Amino acid sequence: VSIEFTIINEIFRRRVRAGDDVLLGIGDDAALTRLPDDSDLVTATDALVAGTHFLTTAPARSVGHRCLAVNLSDLAAMAAEPLWASLALGLPDFDRAWLEDFADGFFALADRYAVRLIGGDTVRSGSLFAAVTVQGCVPRGAVVRRSAASAGDLIYVTGCPGDAAAGRRLATGNPQLPESRVNPMEPLYRQFYFPEPRLAAGKALRSIASAMIDLSDGLHADLGRLLEASGAGASLDVARLPLSIDIRAAFDLPAALELALCGGDDYELCFTVPPDKISLLDGFAERAGCPLTMIGEVCKESGLRWNQSGLNYTVPSSGFEHFE
Ligand code: ADP
Ligand code: MG
Fold this sequence. Notes:
Bound molecules: adenosine-5'-diphosphate, magnesium ion
Order of helices and strands: HEEEHEHEEEHHHEHEHHEHEEE
Mean pLDDT: 94
Strand content: 25-35%
Number of strands: 13
Number of helices: 10
Distance between the termini: 37 Å
Strand order of the largest sheet: 8-10-7-11-9-12-13
Helix content: 25-40%
Largest sheet: 7 strands, mixed
Radius of gyration: 20 Å
Low-confidence stretches: none
Structural class: alpha+beta
């Protein structure tokens, strides 16, 4: 029995839950699935490479969680319902304990959102990587794009941008810290190692948001992409940014603001809402299970203008942080 067979069957296939929409899953040359009637198919792929997209010291469970979570976050940002995932794994060696933990993280999240693993590929590779493709659906025409924000729309974010990058900075700032001392359940670490895709929020925004994007590279950069796609700009207030108690306890205000605007790895949603639909957000936090904060307004003039107490605030220029 080959190692590849063992990995596919004993570690992955064994844990996949059945679903009526999967006519053929793992085991044939390709998967065969059925989309609900009157729906559009939504597909996203994101690859995570060790040392670049996750710390080589990251717990395996976190890597399994994150490679799926970052993809589900893309579906959330399209207001889609997730259905199926495919997993391409590149492994430098066969470490069964690592793979079991990876699969624990992957399936804990997959099962929570009824996502079925329908296939993938398993290869030997110099660098460890996990490339996931997710597919989901939206009722025909109900997708929320990046490109339809208009001047006058209000801008919102879910959760607390900055927390994940704060967790990453704490983790990378202590390279000597033994893994046992890095408690992944402390809030900032948890936001970094186990981000929760905002699927309920995305779906709840279907007939409310005019445009939406998920935050992977930082609020400033990703909101900039939404506005550029919409041919608009924005006026924003840093005093409105929802900084968590945890980030304020670990960092001073300038550092916390920089992490919230430029840190990345948030996997929160940023979206715009036309003024006549704002009242539809009443009770949203309870329904969607996450806090919501209004941070500014879309304007005609391109570019993002951040203000702090009425004065112009210059966003620190910090690029994407590679791990090593
Ligand atoms: P093929 O040669 O047809 O590509 P493989 O031996 O690569 O077949 O894979 C056998 C089956 O296992 C296929 O259904 C494939 O989709 C699935 N598979 C391979 N690797 C994974 C994985 N890491 N997770 C889930 N399914 C996998
Ligand atoms: Mg193959």
